Structure formats: structure tokens, C-alpha cells
Amino acid sequence: MSTENKCPKCGSEHIYEDGNLWVCPECAHEWSAHAAAAVASTEPTEHVIKDANGNVLQDGDTVVVVKDLKVKGSSSVVKVGTKVKNIRLMDAGDGHDISCKIDGFGAMNLKSEYVKKA
User: Could you tell me the pTM of the whole model?
Assistant: First the structure.
């Protein structure tokens, strides 16, 4: 029994190999190891970051803030319509996936769900 593979149909870990096929006893799905490897290699490995409207963001883009954002540790607010130039995308675990500099505020991190591509 293999613990590193899962059934592609139901996600069960209780699969077993039967000759050249993998079999899932829970949903009765059968697949070849070669087909499973081909599917895994075609899946995108790059994390795509999208704005509030679903547009794909890239490094160097200009975005506009779509919601008033309170600045942590300050009484200041980043207002709706604030234009942010030359963003840098990053993969942070806290959801803040845009690193940028905002005039009047300095360097900060933003969540992509609160900006739209300009």
C-alpha cells in the first residue's frame, strides 16, 4: 500500500497496486501509474495572484485600492482610489501577497483582494 499516492477521483489514501493499475477500494476507480504521473506533471506549480476583479497581477503593475484600509499601528487610513505603482508580488503566509511603497505611508504589504489593476 502506498501512502504517497491518493485516488484522483475521491482523494482516498487507501489505494493499492494491482499489476500495472492503481485501484481505489472506496470508489472503484482504476488508473495507471503512468497516467497519474502525466497528470501530476501538467498541473501548474506557479502560484497566480489575482486582484479583486480576477485579473492576474504581475511584478511592476500599477494597482488602485478599492476599499479604505486601516494602517496597523497608526491612526492613518489608505483611502479608496489610492494609486500604488510598481508592486512586487510575494508569497506570504498571512495573505499579504503584495509588497509596495505608498506615497505618504512608506513601505507596506497589501492583500490582493483589496486592489484592482489600473
Answer: 0.60
